[in-house]
Predict the structure.
Amino acid sequence: MELACALGVQSDDLLFDRGSERSRVLAELSDTLDRCTSQQLRILTDIVKAAKISLDKYQQP
């Protein structure tokens, strides 16, 4: 638990191999974004930022 806090990650991320899942998801997202126009990228950036704010606001402690 202390190690997770020191690293700024959740203990489950250390116990289970979620790093590879994260890498896979980021690669998939990158592939999708590579096919977007500049305008689409700006729109998606706004959407993702707004969604992240909402997720943080309503996330259970």
